[in-house]
Design a protein that fits this description.
Spore Coat Polysaccharide Biosynthesis Protein SpsA, Chain A, 255 residues, alpha/beta
Length: 255
């Protein structure tokens, strides 16, 4: 069983994925960490799948999962997390915008007792460097204000693609996840708070990388609708039922 599982969602990432993988493997090998990398190819229409198969020849730690057709970032990450075998599960974006060296910050949080450690581009910290496009920062801050008011007060940044989980927490949270799109992060954080996991938001460095697949107008609207869906599910008591069902399943499995 590896110490760390790295889950990477990939949609049309043939141009950006290889450098990120090289960096991750170099860093983790240097730290003598036993790891696996699970790349979930989410219905790409370019050569992402072929590229990953080439990378497997170079790095034996890589596993490829093919999703057909494209189902969304949230679905891809859920698939990868539930297929992981590591004691810790790291979610990281395929573009390398979150430097893998920032993992040390998340690990320190876990070692200090957190079950879930989420990277944050918005939580103030002078030791972190954030290189982001101004209009994306503005839209992100606006989205965060909405999310805080509706679901997760006190969280500065739900959307940073750099999160570390203890294995049990990862499986519990993603087993109950229902959001397939970009707002899956909001649901996972909301569930973590609802289930009383110890969650810590950790300032991390971040660099804007060219080639983003996000359509700011279209995807921002979709994310807002997904957030409203989470709120609607909350008002209907769906997540409360999931908590009860999860507790019953755990009790039955330990008898």
């Amino acid at each position: 069983m590896p110490e760390l599982s790295v889950v990477i969602p990939a949609y049309n990432e043939e141009k950006r994925l290889a450098p990120a993988i090289d960096s991750i493997c170099s860093f983790l090998t240097g730290k003598k960490t036993d790891f696996e990398i699970i790349i979930v190819n989410d219905g790409s229409t370019d050569n992402t799948g072929a590229l990953v198969r080439q990378l497997i020849l170079k790095y034996q730690q890589i596993r490829l999962i093919e999703n057909e057709p494209n189902r969304g970032k949230g679905y891809a990450i859920k698939t990868g997390v539930l297929a992981s075998t590591g004691n810790l599960v790291l979610i990281i974006d395929a573009d390398g915008s979150s430097p893998i060296s920032e993992l040390d910050r998340l690990l320190a949080s876990i070692e200090n007792g957190a079950d879930v450690s989420i990277g944050s581009r918005a939580k103030p910290d002078a030791s972190c460097t954030i290189n982001a496009l101004p209009y994306r920062t503005y839209i992100g801050n606006t989205f965060n204000r909405i999310v805080q008011s509706l679901l997760v007060p006190g969280i500065y940044d739900t959307q940073c693609g750099f999160k570390l989980f203890k294995k049990a927490a990862a499986f519990d949270l993603f087993s109950d996840a229902t959001i397939n799109g970009y707002a899956f992060d909001v649901e996972i954080i909301y569930l973590a708070q609802l289930k009383k996991y110890r969650l810590e938001e950790v300032p991390t460095s971040w660099n804007n990388m060219p080639g983003s697949k996000i359509n700011i107008l279209v995807d921002s609207l979709k994310m807002l609708l997904e957030v409203l869906k989470i709120k609607y599910n909350t008002l209907r008591g769906k997540y409360s039922r999931q908590r009860t069902e999860s507790a019953n399943e755990y009790t039955s499995s330990t008898k």
